[in-house]
Every structure is written in structure tokens, then in C-alpha cells.
Predict the structure.
Amino acid sequence: MTSLGRLVLALLALAACSERAARSERAVVLYTVNGPELTGPVLERFRAEHPGVELQVVSVPGTGELFARVAAERGAPRADVVWGGAREAYAAHPELLAAVALPEDASTVAIDPEHRWHATDLLLQILVVNTERFEGQRPTTIAELAAPGWSGGQVVLAQPGASGTAFSVLAGLVTRHGWPLVERLVPHLWLVDDSASMFSLVREGEAAVGFMNEDLATQWAAAGVPLALIYPRDGVPYQVGCAAVIAGARHPAEGAALANFLLSAEAQAVQVREVSRRSSRRDAPPPAGVPALSDVDLIELDPALASSGKAALISTFRDTVLRGARR
Amino acid sequence: MSRRALPLAVLALLSLFILVPQLRVLVAAFTGPAGDPSLAPWQEFFGDARFREALLHSLWLALATGLGATLVAVPTAYLLARYEVPGRAWFLELATMTTASPPFLGAYAWVLLLGASGVVMRGLRAAGLGTPFRSIVGPGGIVWVGVWFTAASVVLILHDAFRAGDGSLEEAAAMAGASRRRTLTSITLPLALPAIGTGFYLAALQAFADFGTPKLIGGGYTTLPVALYYEFLSEVQRRPAMAAVACVLMAALSAAGLGFQRWLVSKTYPQPSTRQRVRLPLGPLARRLGVGFLSLSAFLSLVPHAVVVLTSFMTWRAGVLQWTPTLENYRRLWSESWAPIGVSLVLSGIGTAIAVALGAAAAYWIVRRRTPLLSALLNNLIMLPSVIPGTVLAIGLLLTFGAPPWALAGTATILVVAYVVRRLAYVTKAVETAMARVPVAQEEAAWASGATPPRAFFEIVLPQVRGALGAGAASGFLQMMTEVSATVMLYAVPWVTMTVVIFTYALQPGSPFGVASAMTTVLLVCIWVPLRLVSRHTTAREQRAP
């Protein structure tokens, strides 16, 4: 290529660059841990109803990265709204979130008195077994996995410090059964770094048993993955998934409109239908094929343990339980 | 203006973006919780079984991958360099193409084929045949992917080494009665040892610093780069000092590897080269075996590319491959995700332009050595980032420029800085060799006839190194396009690159991976086109040369 050609290309590139930078000032930015399979159809409707709002969606792999990112940008936030991840993660960062009362708050099952987080979904962490891989009698309780004679293979769990889902499982187990059960369970665990690995190892039959989010397990079972869903009789950990408007956001009004839309009956119906995720609304029916909540023994977390006690819970697990098991 | 002002300015600029961030990391690694100088982070690091394990794992992976890649590359390069093999040019071209692939591509493809429910494994079980192992997931898989990802680059390095010389040493050995095997083990391989060491080092370094592959195929096998990522980017209990210790360790171990490679290279012996080395004919059986071996290794290197292109035309449901052909992925890519394509092209384009300009100038100052101290400083500064893993580099930049007065975190600038810093060494080294061949006398003649030094540089020196500059630019560009380990730590909206999108999709279990496959396919096209142009250009050049 001639040097002139190169110069022209470089200039074109610069032009494209400034064009995008200018656009991004106007755009309302959403950080989300939800994948495009959910954000696509939900936001398509939001865009249709708010044609004047330009929306940019950034997917982040996990809640940890999500809040690390928002915290790093504190003072000059780049995002207006965060969506996805558990209430506990939101409650642990009140300084990053704006207190906004949304019209739809009242319809949800969990309401933040300060209106910093807004419930968008109920996410159960159930047990799944890969039926091609698993041999023998399927467990019906978590206690069976921790029993000394457990022979069903390693149970996949992510590091609770790195994965919000795994933290929810750990907090649930400690709340309901106490540390002794966790200590007995640890030798049977296959610990991985992130929730994506935790889920896919069971999906792909690398592991026989693991904890999995109910929505994903339901979708995968429907897509033909050989999974059996188990709602443990001795308690099912769960999270209240949330969205929030970021403190100091550049577009507070549009951000609040987006957050409110995520709680609306319309968006929630899409969520229930598209990704089989339970709605946070009292008036919404459960997704097809999953049991009613009244038939599931949910573990209610001690609120103190869930938010302020989070760091202590994780370090007890990492420093005491894991090290004890290694010894 | 003094003759030294410009090189000094460049030196200062590079120090700011290369040296200062790394010093910042070093200081953080020796800072206690109260901000005092302390060894506490090191005690905490080595007191934690998880980190000790990650360190050992990473070292093991590096050595195994280096060894595997060398074992594949030595016979491949030897065959291609020394014998008349059918399709030789074609095999070399394939090797060049496979060097340009996103690092996580292999992991994704091999899990799809050889994971516990991989296509091949299912097929074998359905056919009633046993499978040799249950799944590729685990440390073995990381090494397997690493070997085929790096082997092609090692082949290219070794090919040049085996082409060096004119074969008179080997002929002399044969005439003195040495068997072919004896000649091989006591002449050919020892002469190629520096290049073999370099290849081993590059493969090992790649595996040591790789972040995507262990995460995707390791099945929870802890490695240092992944542990580092979570120490720095997790929401609870971030321990930046731990991350800094890991950074310093990784940089130090990589530097030790480089020391070993330099030592080997210092053992290079000049080989007589009076005529072109003649390629030897192969017997019919050897010919068949040779082509078979080359085809197999080319096939294994290209499997990931084929798999990703194929799956980009398949339907995915809730992240599960359905084997129904479709164009839907490309339609969605076009309607939803075209922006990252532009961002990648623009940032890598700007990064390449800066790297080429800086690299050409630096190579000139280094080669001409008009101020020896300045040349030496510049050379070492530019080479430094080549031993610093991308994750470590990113952490240094974040620690240094993350807060006011700089506040570059999350800007396009910091990404471009990271790309330039990471790849400047490659561009500079590519140009240096060519620059050294330009006679000083030509330049001096231009000065004598009244040309200013800049004019002499642009009109005499630069035109003669255009080929090397082009090759450096192409390899720099494709490495920037596929950069993931620094990018995932540094990016922010709206500067989301293709690699970030692919990586995020790969880590979101329910996401429509077909779109990511389609994007990877587009990425491959984006890097193959410039590569093809350059390699055609250089081939044409070589053919013109006497």
C-alpha cells in the first residue's frame, strides 16, 4: 500500500473514532452481567418505547467485575444503570448507587427502604446432576453431598470470593446448616474460579454434580442437555437479583426510566419467557416447567450475614475451611 | 535544537509509560497494609497455598508447553528447510496464518471437540469405541492448546535457522565419514540450538502469561495470571499488594527466561554462507511420511480456526450448539455488535501507526549508536515490556494512570498506550536488522550534498527498510487486534473491542455463542488480510532478489 493510502486510512479511522466518542456522550450506558439472550429482547422493547433514548449495553462476566468497575469509575461514572447480580452485592455498595424511588418498586417482593436497589428477579441456586455422567442414587438433600460416604463424585462450586452465585450458596449453607456441614462438604468440592466454569463443567459432563442457577438449568434442560434439576429438601439458597441507578450518573432521568422499565410487567414477562428466570413481581406467574415457590424450601439469609458479613464469611471459608481441608 | 533532543524526548516518553508503571508495581509489592515498606505481601503470598500452587502450576505449564512446541516444531522446520517436500510453500504459508489467531480460540474449539461431551468423544462412544481419556479439560488441555497455538511461530523461527549457512559444514562432516544421524546430532542441531532456545522461550513465555486458555479449558486449574485477575478485579477483599507480588514474580521469572535465551543466543556460531543452501530430495517412503507429518501438524494447528468458522454458521440455543445451519449469527452481529469491530480496527490502527513511527526512529538510534549510552537505554527500555505479561502491564498502567492528575483509566488512550508498549519491541526488532544493512556512507553522502539529517533519513534510510517496516506493522497490528489479557483489565465504554466481546460471551454460560463465533471469524479475516498482503509483498521481494 502506498503511504498516501495509509494516510487516508488513518484519517478515516480518526474520523470514525471521534464520531463514536461524540455519540457515547449522549448514550445511556447500562452495565449488566446478563447476557444478550436476555438484554436483547428486553431492551428491544425499551428502545421501542423510548425512541429518543440512545442506549449502550456493556456486558461484564460477573458481579465482582461489575462492582469493581463501578467502584473504579466512582467520581466520573461512565454507566447510568447496573443490572444483574444479587441484592447483597448492591447493599454492600450504597455509596455507589443513587437512592431513587421507582413507581414499579411497590409491585416487587423485596423493597429496599432506601430505594438504592430494585428487585428484578429471584434466582434459585439448585442442585443439578448430569444424567449421562452421574451413576447411582441421585441426592435429594445437600446434607447427602456432605456425608462421609458420599460417592457421587466431586461437586462443582466456584470460589465464593470470586462468584456471587457461589457466595449465595455458601451463605445459604452457613445460615441453614452452619459451618460444620461446610467443613464436611469441602473435601467433596471441585472449586473453580468463576460461576461460568461452575455451570459449564456440569453441562458438559466434566463433573457429575454441581450448583446451578435455576434459570440456566431450566433452559439447558429444555435445549437437550442431559440435566436433572434437584430442589434440595433441606433448603434452597436464593438471591434477589437487582438493578440500580448509579450515583452521579450522567443521565439520571433516563437511567431511572430504564431501571423502572426493567421492573415493569412487560419486561418481566419477557424475562420469564425468554430465559426462564423467576420474576420479582408479586403478580407474575413462574416460568413454565418450574415448581411454584410455595413448594420450595427457600433459605432466608440473615441480612447482617448477607451484606456486612460478606467479607468475613469469605475469609473464614478461604483461610480456615480451605486450609483446614488441605492439611 | 540539539541532535539529541528528539531521542531524549522519546526516551522520556517511553520511561513514563514503560518504566514508571512497572516501578509502581514493584513499590506496591513491598508496601505493607499501613503504607510502610514491608515484606508482608511476600509472606502473605507464599503463606497462601493457593498462590504457591498457582505459581507452580504456571511454571509447569510454561515448561511443558515450551517442550511440546519445540518437539513439534524442530522436525517440521527441519523438513521444510532442508528437503524438497511437496507443498512446501503452502505449509509455510499455513504456519504464518496460524500464528495470527486470538489466544483463546484453541481452548474453545478443543473443548467442543474433545471435552467430556465433545463431538469427537460422543462419536467415539456412539461407535462403541472407547475414548483414550474422558475429557481434554484440565492441565493437559491447557498444554495441548498452548502447543498448537505456539508451534507455528516456533516453526518459522527454526525454519530461518535451518536455512542459515550453505551446508558446507554438514558436507565436510559427511566427507569425514560421519553418519547422517551423527551429522544431525553433532553439527545441525547444535548450530540450531540458539534458535531452538528462542523458540522454546517464546512458547513457554506465551503459556506462562496466557490468561484466556486456562480459564476456558483448565477446569479450575489455578494459574498465576488468573489468580492475579481475581485479586485485582474481584468485588470483595481485593488485595492489590498480592496482585503486585504476583506481577513482580511473573516479570522476574520471564526475565530469567530471557536471560537464558540471551545466553544461548550468545553461543551462536557464524556459518559459512557462500551460496544458497540446496534442498535435498527425499526418497518415496520418507516423502510420504514427511508430507503426512506436516499435514497432521498443520491440521492440528488449524482445527480451532475451522471449528470457529463452522460453528459461526450453526444455531445456538441457550449457549448450546444445535447443529442446524443458519446465517442468524451474522445478522445479529451486524445489527447489534458492529461497534466493537470498528473500535478494534481503529485502536489497533492508531497503535500500529504510533508503534511503526516510534519503532523506526528507535531502531535508527539504536543501530547508528551515535550516542552509545542513549542507544543502550533505549534498547533496554523497549525490550522490557516483552517480558512483562499483559495482565501485569495493565495493572502497572492502572496503578500509575488510574487516578488524577492522569486519570487515563477507561480511555481509548490507555488502550493504545498498552498496545504500543506491548508491541513496540517486535516492530523495533523487525526494523533494526534491515536498518543495520543500510550503509552509513549513503547517509553521509546525502549530508555532504546538503540534505538535512531528517531529510536523509526519510529519503535514503526509510525507503530501504520499507519491507521490514511493513512486516513489523502487520505483525504489530494483528497482535494488537488479538490482544486480550491487558485489554480486559483496561477497557471501558465505549471502547469495547472485539476480543472483549468474544471473551465476555465465552464467560457467560447462557449467551448466544454463535455471535461470538461470527465475531471471531470476522476478527480472523481482519488479521489475515493484512498478513496476506505483507507475505505476498515479501515473497515477491525475495523472488526479485538475486
User: Anything to note?
Assistant: Chain A has 13 helices and ten strands. Chain A touches chain B through 78 residues (CB under 8 Å). The CA atoms of residues 158 and 192 of chain A lie 5 Å apart. The domain at 123-238+294-326 of chain A is CATH 3.40.190.10 (D-Maltodextrin-Binding Protein; domain 2).
